[in-house]
Amino acid sequence: KPVSLPLHPKTRVAVMSGQSSGCGFLMSVVVHGDSTLNEQEKELNQRLRRLYPAVNESETPLPRSWSPKDKFSYIGLSQNNLRVHYKGHGKTPKDAASVRATHPIPAACGVYYFEVKIISKGRDGYMGIGLSAQGVNMNRLPGWDKHSYGYHGDDGHSFCSSGTGQPYGPTFTTGDVIGCCVNLINNTCFYTKNGHSLGRKKSNDWPNLYPTVGLQTPGEVVDANFGQHPFVFDIEDYMREWRTKIQAQIDRFPIGEREGEWQSMIQKMVASYLVHHSYCATAEAFAKTTDQAVHEELASIKNRQKIQKLVLSGRMGEAIETTQQLYPNLLERNPDLLFMLKVRQFIEMVNGTDSEVRCLGGRSPKSQDSYPGSPRSFSSPSHKASSSQPYLTGFDSSCCNGVTSNKSHSSSPHSHKACPPSSGSTLISSDISVNGSRQQPLTSDVDMEVDHFTNGVTESSSNGFLNGTSKHATEPDDCDADMEVESAQSKRQLCGGSQAAIERMIHFGRELQSMSEHLRRECGKNSANKKMLKDAFSLLAYSDPWNSPVGYQLDSIQREPVCSTLNSAILETHNLPKQPPLAQAVGQAAQCLAIMARSGSGSCAFASVDDYLH
Amino acid sequence: MQEVTATSRHYVDRLFDPDPQKVLQGVIDMKNAVIGNNKQKANLIVLGAVPRLLYLLQQSSSGLDLRTECAVVLGSLAMGTENNIKSLVDCHIIPALLQGLLSPELIFIEACLRCLRTVFISPVTPVQLLYTVSILFFLFSVFTSDHQTVLFNHSAVQHIAPLLISPSYKVRMQALKCFSVLAYENTQVSMTLVNVLVDGEPLSQVFVRMMQRDQPVEMQLTAAKCLTFMCRAGAIQTEESCIVLKTLPCLVRMCSKDHLLEERVDGAETLAYLIEPDVELQRIASTTDHLVAMLADYFKYPSSVSAITDIKRLDHDLKHAHELRQAAFKLYASLGSNDEDIRKKITDTENMMDRIVSGLSESSIKVRLAAVRCLHSLSRSVQQLRTSFHDHAVWKPLMKLLQNAPDDVLIMASSTLCNLLLEFSPSKEPILESGVIELLCSLTQSDSPALRINGIWALMNMAFQADQKVKVEIVGCLGTEQLFRLLSDPDNSVLMKTLGLLRNLLSTRPHIDQIMSSHGKQIMQAVTLILEAEQSIEVKEQTLCILANIADGNTAKDLIMTNDDMLQKIKYYMSHSSVKLQLAATFCISNLIWNEEDGSQERQDKLRELGFVDVLHKLSQASDPNLSDRAKTAMQQYLA
Questions:
Q1: Which of A85, A430, A483, B399 is disulfide-compatible with A381, CB 3.0–4.6 A?
Q2: For residue B160, with 0-12 CB atoms within 10 Å meaning exposed, 13-18 middle and 19 or more buried, which class applies?
Q3: Which residue has the higher pLDDT, A427 or A248?
């Protein structure tokens, strides 16, 4: 039968342009004639991520090379702006020239380090390695002026915002590797020579210092290493010491006389968390043993649990129906939510999992039988796990990925994507912060998923949180492999392969299309909704939707944000928090760290929230 | 069965015999009875032999043989079934055996170790008992190199190595301590350690990991010690990164104010030991983390603040003050032992010379020794001798230190004195005036070769270009008898320095004649003796030089000219295979035939008769330019 749905060629174009831009990148590498560049770049990124995991590079990029714009004219740059040479007359100190790195050192580094190798000391070896703030005169060596520091090769002196240096270390010359380490926690810095620390110096806490190098006589050439190569000095060992110090500080943080309160507070948090995610039996047992009251009726919790189970197993039609039964006005008042649920239903139809297409003859009974103990078996592995092992699910709110360590499938159910699609409360801010750089309005939920997904696959994210997600994104594939999809891979077909089901799906798609148009007329344009629908329909543009660029939507993990959003909406109608306090606290902590990073407090580097979510 | 038990009981009964000799025989018989006989072993255990054996083993009155045999029998019992081991452990065999390790008798220790090993390798021995490794360490701390070897021969290394990766910190730590004790100044152990793998990883890498900065300080420090000892024993090269980039920085870090006083002492001492023989490590350490300045803080205890505010802290500071100072001096001594720039850096450190000076007269012998070591190290610098040493009159406390000091202090102090007596040292004069000669002469009579060398060395330096009064005083004070005793000293360096002293005494003509007129006979005798003896080329060369000096005197010449035997000897050495000796001998002849002096004609004639001209003629053709020149110059004396 003819498919009369609009095909959205744009999507495919977009994909192609993505590919071609990839080619362009490769070509540019070839043009540079440096086949190792790519390798080096990769190594650099890896090293920087390992050294500075707390840095959010979309907000505060790390220095990666010298800046061709922020230098004195006597400075020449080459080799990808890593090599610096002097090209002035070099007659007097007035001929001194400096260059700064492209970016200042982010406070979230905690401890920052770079090295410079002296390729040639030139005529006199008047070289200075150090730091300076934006705007400090570049016609000088680092350290001579206010807001700059430098260690000079000719006399081994250290200059600290002054024309006269203090005896500091040995002199340095051709072949030496000089390093500069900034400790943003205790505001000290030290230099190294050939891997040996030369001794701590107190520094003022000026924010946003740039790695800087200055030269003064002809022939002087130095190469920078911002992480392109292994460092001669063992900076990681130094960082280990500080990580241990900071963590000890946290561990020793005095709780004092509030110890009793502390315990009851934690119990409340756990209880509310269990209730929020409808782990009724556990919540009940926990409340009993810890002598607490549950603020929601058991029946209500069970209702939510039922709906969640349906969503997580992909039975969207039933989920919508049940919601409408149990919470009559909820979806009517919340058309965007309904739309979202319907789009998900469409996707599940394509997948062959929605109840409406399933009854039309999709699934083999065998796969249903594979879940003994579950009278109405679901094919979603994540659901199976979460129903049988509720304790292990960990935090499944938007704020945490600590669950990655949890090997059960339940680790994936509700990863970070549970950003509630409403706005206005303080909770939102913590949500956003948790998602790090991705500060899109929350309504563009699906949009976000796309980003996350790509990040996850390429593993290029520097954000601990996103890293976590990337695992989620890949893990379910494995889960599916043995549970659902792969067992049917050979016959994985649209809507489970039933012709009737396809017709039903297409019909449903048309309804969805008209609902979208209706919504637009009623509530105005909504780009998020539009994109959501477009992405869902794009599935039909491929002969094998599961292996298409938009195939990720079919992944059962994508049910989780939908489930979480629906759950939050239900809770809100009961005047209950749409997010459990536990998640809120975690979000709060993450937000604090982000604020610390922005306000220049380096200890945030070694206090990752993830470290405490085991 | 009944019978067996009866014989077993007999063995046990004999252990209680009042005659120790019979007890010993009983134990030996028991030993023979239980070998390979599990039933017998079980019987003896049931009959309560173990507590009695342990009792005998622990009594020092038992005598070495009995105690050793007891340990052997217990070891034999341990070889039996797992139940046997359980019974032994229940009887507290382990503490008893560990206690046994403290014995000075190696045979007994060996027997105890063998038994311990059998007990420990058994799977039924509870893991907690491994904690007793800590007791082991306590024991090791008193061990000598003999003990190291015994342990080594009992494959202690193989047994302790796996404990380094034990999940328990305590066990890891104690194993690490064991290694530090085993490796100390022991090349054999250290060489083995470098090849040991722990879970596929070389031991040195395991130590490096233990030095990581997030590890407990105690562990970092002890791991650094292990690597230091292995390095000093020659098992690891100093330029290897695990030493130069890991151990050295780790030890420097331990010296910083952030650490406990004990750790700072330990760190500085270990670092001093590590860098002592290697100038490159000294250079690197001297620039690492401002170490030289950091050490200056070691002298600030007890601080004035602590005295007022906190009695407890004052007490603590006072306790460690001496240790800190001596550690700092030791490290300064190592740092400055080779490099002139480092020495300058040290003497430029705030109040450094004053601190050394007051350290020399501190009540603690350890501090005095370390201070004088430091002074000695710095005294190798010509510049420091001329400047800071003189400015601070270091010779005064040094002289004081030399009175009634123990040998180790005396060795260092006298060695320093040698340097202070070098001719360019401005301290030489005041030291001379302080009556040092007598002291040095008494040192030459010491039993310690090092002191004899230093004494005679200092005298030699003192005699160099000295005026006659001093020389007379030296000879007078030392006495020819002692001088000749030194010339036959078993220590070759003492002999060399004594010859050097003689050479210095016998320089400038009036001095030569004066000394030879009073001691000529003995000196000639000594020279003859040495030239006739089996001596090294260097010794003979020095002796011939002395002879040449004598030949330079006016009246002294006759002592040679009238001694035909000596002339024959000189002739012999002119044809010796060693150019050095040929040169010295030729020099001597050249002095004898020198023209412008009284009686030169007679001497020339006599020597010609003896065939010296022919020899000189031959030497003038020598391939060595110095020698041929010397010979030609001598020949010219005949022509003029």
A1: A483
A2: buried
A3: A248
Distances, alpha carbon B216 to alpha carbons A39, A205, A245, B24, B173, in Å? 37, 30, 11, 50, 10
- Does A237 sit within 8 Å of B213, measured CB to CB? yes
Q: Which of A126-140, A438-452, B132-146 has the lowest average pLDDT? A: A438-452
pLDDT at residue A66 greater than cutoff 90: yes
Q: For the segment A2-11, what is each residue's pLDDT rounded down to a tens digit? A: 333 333 333 3
Please tell me the distance from the alpha carbon of residue A99 to that of residue A226, in angstroms, as a whole number: 14
Note whether B289 contacts A244, CB cutoff 8 Å.
Answer: no
Query: Which chain B residues contact residue A237 at CB under 8 A?
Result: 212-213
Q: Where are the alpha helices (DSSP H) in A252-354?
A: 259-276, 280-289, 298-312, 316-326, 330-333, 335-351
Q: Flag whether the pTM goes above 0.90.
A: no
Lowest mean pLDDT among A382-386, B239-243, B419-423: A382-386
Half-sphere exposure of B501 (CA within 13 A, CB side): 32
Q: Mean pLDDT, to the nearest integer, of B449-461?
A: 92
Q: Taking CA atoms, what residue in A is nearest to B342? A: A170
Residues B592-610, mean pLDDT to the nearest whole number: 81
Higher pLDDT pick, B142 / A117: A117
Supply the mean pLDDT for chain B: 86
Joined together, the tokens standing for residue B275 give 């860098």
Q: Which of B212, B214, B287 sits opposite A196 (nearest CB)?
A: B287
The closest alpha carbon to B281, from B325, B326, B328, B331, belongs to: B331
pLDDT confidence tier of residue A421, bands split at 50, 70 and 90: very low
B284:A196 CB<8 A = yes
Chain A interface, mutation test: which of B205, B290, B291, B341, most A Cβ atoms within 10 Å?
B290
In terms of Cβ atoms closer than 10 Å to its own Cβ (0-12, 13-18, 19+), residue B146 is exposed
Q: Which residues of A touch B246 (CB under 8 A)?
A: 234
HEC per residue, B503-545: HHHCCCHHHHHHHHHHHHHHHHHHHHHHHHCCCCHHHHHHHHH
- ipTM of this model? 0.73
Give the number of A-B residue pairs with CB atoms closer than 8 Å: 35
For range B281-285, the mean pLDDT: 97
Please state, rounded to an integer, the average pLDDT across all residues of chain A. 75
Q: Which of A190, A193, A238 sits opposite B287 (nearest CB)?
A: A193
CB nearest A241 (choices: B213, B287, B289): B213
Task: Read off the pLDDT of each residue in B205-223 and give the average, rounded to a whole number.
Answer: 96
Preferred mutation among B211, B254, B287 to probe A, highest tally of A CBs within 10 A? B287
Q: What is the pLDDT of residue B263?
A: 96
CA-wise closest residue to B353 among B335, B332, B337, B334: B332
How sure is the predictor about B130, in pLDDT bands with cuts at 50, 70 and 90? low
Task: Measure CB to CB from residue B287 to each of A198, A200, A240 and give the nearest one.
Answer: A198
Out of A193, A195, A237, the one facing B212 most closely (by C-beta) is A237
For the beta sheet containing A196-202, the strands, ordered from the edge strand earlier in sequence to the opposite edge, are A75-78, A83-86, A220-225, A111-121, A177-183, A188-193, A196-202
Query: Which residues of chain A are within 8 Å of residue B289 when distances are taken between CB atoms?
Result: 190, 197-200
A85-113: b (≥16 Cβ within 10 Å) or e: bbebebeeeebbbbbbbbbbbbbbbbbbb
Residues belonging to chain B with any Cβ–Cβ distance to chain A shorter than 8 Å: 212-214, 245-246, 248-249, 284, 287-290
Per residue in B410-430, pLDDT tens? 999 989 988 888 878 888 888
Distance from CA of B250 to the nearest CA of A (A): 11
Tokens of B116: 């311990």
Q: Nearest CA to B610 among B630, B598, B629, B592?
A: B592
Q: Cis omega (within 30 of 0) on the bond before B302? A: yes
